[in-house]
Amino acid sequence: MELLSQLEELVSEPFVDKQQVDDAECRQFVKPGNDAFFSELYFKNKLEPLINYFLGRHGVEIKSLYTALNKEPLKRIGYGIINAEGIPGELFAQMSKLGDIGKWLSAYYLAGIFNMKSHDDYSKEILQEKPVYVQVLETAVSGINLLRHIHDEMKKQPQFRKNKNLQRINDVYITDISIPYEKEIREACSIATDTWQDRIMEEESYGHPPESLGLCRRFH
Q1: pLDDT, tens digit, 9 for 90 and up, residues 97-127
Q2: pTM for the whole thing?
Q3: Among 46, 51, 75, 77, CA closest to 62
Q4: Of 9, 60, 112, 213, which one is least surrounded by beta carbons within 10 A?
Q5: In this model, does residue 42 exceed pLDDT 60?
Protein backbone atom coordinates (compact mmCIF):
# COMPACT_ATOMS: atom_id res chain seq x y z
CA MET A 1 0.00 0.00 0.00
CA GLU A 2 1.49 3.32 -1.13
CA LEU A 3 0.56 5.36 1.95
CA LEU A 4 2.03 2.76 4.28
CA SER A 5 5.32 2.34 2.43
CA GLN A 6 5.82 6.09 2.03
CA LEU A 7 5.00 6.85 5.67
CA GLU A 8 7.31 4.11 6.91
CA GLU A 9 10.19 5.65 5.01
CA LEU A 10 9.41 9.28 5.84
CA VAL A 11 9.11 8.98 9.63
CA SER A 12 11.93 6.52 10.24
CA GLU A 13 15.29 7.52 11.68
CA PRO A 14 17.32 9.61 10.97
CA PHE A 15 14.44 11.81 9.75
CA VAL A 16 12.46 11.55 13.01
CA ASP A 17 13.86 10.85 16.48
CA LYS A 18 11.87 7.85 17.71
CA GLN A 19 12.91 8.35 21.33
CA GLN A 20 11.49 11.87 21.31
CA VAL A 21 8.19 10.58 19.92
CA ASP A 22 8.02 7.80 22.53
CA ASP A 23 8.80 10.16 25.40
CA ALA A 24 6.30 12.80 24.25
CA GLU A 25 3.48 10.30 23.80
CA CYS A 26 4.06 9.07 27.34
CA ARG A 27 4.02 12.52 28.91
CA GLN A 28 1.34 13.29 31.48
CA PHE A 29 -2.14 13.97 30.13
CA VAL A 30 -3.26 17.61 30.19
CA LYS A 31 -7.00 17.88 30.80
CA PRO A 32 -8.98 20.64 29.13
CA GLY A 33 -9.14 23.51 31.59
CA ASN A 34 -9.82 27.20 31.95
CA ASP A 35 -6.45 28.53 30.82
CA ALA A 36 -6.10 30.97 27.95
CA PHE A 37 -5.41 28.35 25.29
CA PHE A 38 -8.43 26.21 26.08
CA SER A 39 -10.59 29.33 26.31
CA GLU A 40 -9.58 30.25 22.76
CA LEU A 41 -10.82 26.88 21.54
CA TYR A 42 -14.35 27.80 22.62
CA PHE A 43 -14.76 30.17 19.69
CA LYS A 44 -15.38 28.44 16.38
CA ASN A 45 -13.79 31.23 14.32
CA LYS A 46 -10.51 30.75 16.19
CA LEU A 47 -10.30 26.97 16.02
CA GLU A 48 -9.02 26.60 12.47
CA PRO A 49 -6.44 29.42 12.73
CA LEU A 50 -5.08 28.02 16.01
CA ILE A 51 -4.74 24.51 14.64
CA ASN A 52 -3.16 25.73 11.43
CA TYR A 53 -0.81 28.01 13.36
CA PHE A 54 0.54 25.01 15.23
CA LEU A 55 0.79 22.79 12.15
CA GLY A 56 1.97 25.66 9.96
CA ARG A 57 5.18 25.94 11.92
CA HIS A 58 6.05 22.57 10.42
CA GLY A 59 4.87 23.25 6.90
CA VAL A 60 1.35 21.86 7.31
CA GLU A 61 -1.79 23.86 6.51
CA ILE A 62 -5.33 22.54 6.07
CA LYS A 63 -7.53 25.25 4.60
CA SER A 64 -10.72 23.17 4.68
CA LEU A 65 -10.71 22.10 8.32
CA TYR A 66 -13.92 23.84 9.28
CA THR A 67 -15.61 22.84 6.04
CA ALA A 68 -15.03 19.16 6.77
CA LEU A 69 -15.45 19.06 10.56
CA ASN A 70 -17.82 20.72 13.00
CA LYS A 71 -16.78 22.73 16.04
CA GLU A 72 -16.89 20.04 18.73
CA PRO A 73 -14.80 17.47 16.82
CA LEU A 74 -12.35 20.23 15.86
CA LYS A 75 -11.89 21.14 19.52
CA ARG A 76 -10.44 17.67 20.13
CA ILE A 77 -7.71 18.40 17.60
CA GLY A 78 -7.02 21.56 19.58
CA TYR A 79 -6.89 19.57 22.81
CA GLY A 80 -4.33 17.36 21.10
CA ILE A 81 -2.04 20.34 20.49
CA ILE A 82 -1.69 21.03 24.21
CA ASN A 83 -0.93 17.33 24.72
CA ALA A 84 1.61 17.17 21.88
CA GLU A 85 4.39 18.92 23.78
CA GLY A 86 7.68 17.26 22.94
CA ILE A 87 6.55 15.70 19.66
CA PRO A 88 9.37 16.60 17.24
CA GLY A 89 8.34 19.05 14.56
CA GLU A 90 10.13 16.86 12.03
CA LEU A 91 7.34 14.30 12.42
CA PHE A 92 4.72 16.71 11.09
CA ALA A 93 7.09 18.07 8.47
CA GLN A 94 7.77 14.59 7.16
CA MET A 95 4.06 13.69 7.09
CA SER A 96 3.37 16.83 5.06
CA LYS A 97 5.48 15.32 2.28
CA LEU A 98 2.65 12.85 1.70
CA GLY A 99 0.57 15.71 0.31
CA ASP A 100 -3.03 16.35 1.33
CA ILE A 101 -3.48 13.01 3.05
CA GLY A 102 -0.40 13.71 5.16
CA LYS A 103 -1.88 17.00 6.36
CA TRP A 104 -5.08 15.31 7.49
CA LEU A 105 -3.05 12.50 9.05
CA SER A 106 -1.32 15.16 11.18
CA ALA A 107 -4.67 16.53 12.36
CA TYR A 108 -6.04 13.10 13.24
CA TYR A 109 -2.78 12.27 15.00
CA LEU A 110 -3.28 15.29 17.26
CA ALA A 111 -6.84 14.25 18.10
CA GLY A 112 -5.57 10.75 18.78
CA ILE A 113 -2.88 11.97 21.16
CA PHE A 114 -5.59 13.63 23.23
CA ASN A 115 -7.83 10.57 23.06
CA MET A 116 -5.15 8.04 23.91
CA LYS A 117 -3.60 10.05 26.73
CA SER A 118 -7.03 10.64 28.25
CA HIS A 119 -7.51 6.85 28.43
CA ASP A 120 -3.91 6.08 29.39
CA ASP A 121 -3.48 4.02 26.22
CA TYR A 122 0.22 4.63 25.70
CA SER A 123 2.58 2.02 27.11
CA LYS A 124 6.25 2.99 27.20
CA GLU A 125 7.30 -0.64 27.04
CA ILE A 126 5.26 -1.32 23.90
CA LEU A 127 6.21 1.98 22.25
CA GLN A 128 9.89 1.07 22.56
CA GLU A 129 9.25 -1.91 20.29
CA LYS A 130 6.80 -0.21 17.93
CA PRO A 131 7.99 1.69 14.84
CA VAL A 132 6.99 5.35 14.59
CA TYR A 133 4.87 4.82 11.47
CA VAL A 134 2.75 2.25 13.35
CA GLN A 135 2.39 4.62 16.30
CA VAL A 136 1.30 7.43 13.97
CA LEU A 137 -1.32 5.34 12.19
CA GLU A 138 -2.76 3.82 15.36
CA THR A 139 -2.90 7.20 17.06
CA ALA A 140 -4.49 8.80 13.99
CA VAL A 141 -7.21 6.12 13.87
CA SER A 142 -7.83 6.65 17.57
CA GLY A 143 -8.31 10.33 16.69
CA ILE A 144 -10.70 9.50 13.85
CA ASN A 145 -12.72 7.31 16.22
CA LEU A 146 -12.92 10.18 18.69
CA LEU A 147 -14.03 12.70 16.04
CA ARG A 148 -16.80 10.34 14.92
CA HIS A 149 -17.87 9.69 18.50
CA ILE A 150 -18.10 13.38 19.38
CA HIS A 151 -20.03 14.17 16.20
CA ASP A 152 -22.48 11.31 16.80
CA GLU A 153 -23.04 12.42 20.40
CA MET A 154 -23.87 15.91 19.15
CA LYS A 155 -26.41 14.39 16.78
CA LYS A 156 -28.12 12.61 19.68
CA GLN A 157 -28.29 15.54 22.09
CA PRO A 158 -29.46 18.94 20.85
CA GLN A 159 -27.23 21.81 21.92
CA PHE A 160 -28.87 25.20 22.34
CA ARG A 161 -27.40 28.65 22.02
CA LYS A 162 -28.83 32.17 21.80
CA ASN A 163 -28.51 34.33 18.70
CA LYS A 164 -28.16 38.12 18.73
CA ASN A 165 -31.91 38.45 19.33
CA LEU A 166 -31.65 36.11 22.34
CA GLN A 167 -33.59 33.41 20.52
CA ARG A 168 -32.70 29.81 21.29
CA ILE A 169 -31.23 27.98 18.32
CA ASN A 170 -30.89 24.22 18.08
CA ASP A 171 -27.25 23.38 17.34
CA VAL A 172 -27.80 19.65 16.87
CA TYR A 173 -25.72 18.11 14.07
CA ILE A 174 -28.09 16.75 11.43
CA THR A 175 -25.59 15.34 8.94
CA ASP A 176 -23.11 12.49 9.18
CA ILE A 177 -19.49 13.44 9.63
CA SER A 178 -17.25 13.23 6.59
CA ILE A 179 -13.62 12.48 7.42
CA PRO A 180 -11.20 12.98 4.52
CA TYR A 181 -9.00 9.95 3.75
CA GLU A 182 -10.51 7.90 6.56
CA LYS A 183 -10.68 4.70 4.51
CA GLU A 184 -7.06 4.93 3.33
CA ILE A 185 -5.74 5.64 6.82
CA ARG A 186 -7.75 2.84 8.43
CA GLU A 187 -6.55 0.35 5.82
CA ALA A 188 -2.92 1.39 6.28
CA CYS A 189 -3.30 1.14 10.06
CA SER A 190 -4.78 -2.35 9.91
CA ILE A 191 -1.98 -3.63 7.69
CA ALA A 192 0.74 -1.90 9.74
CA THR A 193 -0.55 -3.22 13.07
CA ASP A 194 -1.02 -6.78 11.78
CA THR A 195 2.44 -6.81 10.19
CA TRP A 196 4.09 -5.49 13.34
CA GLN A 197 2.30 -7.97 15.57
CA ASP A 198 3.20 -10.86 13.27
CA ARG A 199 6.85 -9.85 13.43
CA ILE A 200 6.80 -9.65 17.21
CA MET A 201 5.15 -13.07 17.47
CA GLU A 202 7.82 -14.56 15.23
CA GLU A 203 10.60 -13.00 17.29
CA GLU A 204 9.06 -14.21 20.54
CA SER A 205 7.69 -17.52 19.36
CA TYR A 206 8.81 -19.17 22.58
CA GLY A 207 7.45 -16.46 24.84
CA HIS A 208 4.46 -14.18 25.01
CA PRO A 209 4.01 -11.47 22.36
CA PRO A 210 3.30 -7.94 23.56
CA GLU A 211 -0.27 -7.20 24.41
CA SER A 212 -2.23 -5.99 21.39
CA LEU A 213 -3.54 -2.47 21.92
CA GLY A 214 -6.25 -2.94 19.28
CA LEU A 215 -6.24 0.83 18.71
CA CYS A 216 -7.29 0.61 15.07
CA ARG A 217 -10.62 -0.80 16.21
CA ARG A 218 -11.00 0.98 19.53
CA PHE A 219 -14.13 3.08 20.03
CA HIS A 220 -13.11 5.56 22.70
Answers
A1: 999 999 999 999 999 999 999 999 999 999 9
A2: 0.85
A3: 51
A4: 9
A5: yes
